[in-house]
Amino acid sequence: MHVFVTVGETGGFSAASRKLDVSPAAVTRAIMALEDQLGVRLLLRTTRNVRLTDAGRQYYDDARAILSSIAEANESVSGVNAQPRGILSVTAPVLFGRRFVMPCIAEYMRHYPQVDVSAHFVDRVVNLVEEGMDVALRIGHLPDSSLRAIRLGRMRRVLCASPAYLEANGLPGHPSDLLQHTIVSSSAVSPRVEWRFGSGADPVTVRMKPRLVVTSNDSAVQAAVDGLGVTRLFSYMVAAQVARGELRLLLEDYEEDPWPVHVVHREGRNGSSKVRAFIDCAVEHLRDDPLLRG
User: Fold this and answer.
1) Does domain 157-254 have CATH number 3.40.50.1110?
2) Distance from chain centroid for Cα 22
């Protein structure tokens, strides 16, 4: 079980063998014996990589929880449970990580000097199981899964443009007016340029062809500040620019319901102390942040 979880965490037999300090053949034998015992394929092996099957993903979560409980019991009986240790992997969107998560990490590392942190800030949804992450901060509605989540707040999605652009092109009064405007789209937030407005049973949907598509949110912010057009982003991304008057919010009466913000993790009730301590830190810091009150 420990070998299988290590293969799942490292993404390969060779990497697992190096981490466990055993031969690749020993790793292969252990996985084959486990699959024979269970009567199910846990891993799909190709010449390039190894990935979990659906059954393997479920078994990975369960096995990891079991091994975590064993480690927790060992820590408890040896009297070191109060001091988290090891490596903690955290992921979040780039700007959200910079604005909200890094202060939590800094505070966490000051309190727990025996924990090393690996922070992955990327503008995509990271698979915690396949990429070996312990904790994720996510904006949006969560799909049903074996992951556990704690709600931290909610976030508006807002339209904005620079005063110079609006002076030259006019102020939209209805979502349909956006068809007459230049659109800047961030594929990190809106992979489809089909923006939904309003809430309830009768929302308004506008499908547009953007003139500029960027892959990072900070680029979309800068493009809007430079007067290139109208963009749609989460409110925290443009809060500073709005406060300085570099951007103006548009069509606020037509905004959709705010999106929830969660801290997501794989641990169960008896999860590792390093993960529980970070979650407690994130909840304490972020639930009181005014930018997360929608």
Assistant:
1) no
2) 33
189: nearest Cα among 154, 235, 148, 229? 235
**By the 8 A CB rule, do 292 and 152 touch?**
yes
Distance CA 81, CA 118 (A): 21
Q: Which residue has the tokens 């070996």?
A: 132
| Nearby residues of 68 by Cβ (< 8 Å), 6 or more positions away | 267, 268, 270, 271, 272
Helices of type H across 125-272: 163-169, 217-225, 235-243
pLDDT at 120: 94
CATH of span 2-78: 1.10.10.10
| 65-90 pLDDT, tens digit each | 888 777 767 766 655 555 788 889 99
- Give the H or E element holding residue 207: strand 204-207
**Cα atoms in the Cβ-side hemisphere of radius 13 Å centred on 20:** 24
Per-residue pLDDT, averaged over 235-248, amounts to 95
Which CATH fold topology does 86-155+259-292 show?
A: D-Maltodextrin-Binding Protein; domain 2 (3.40.190)
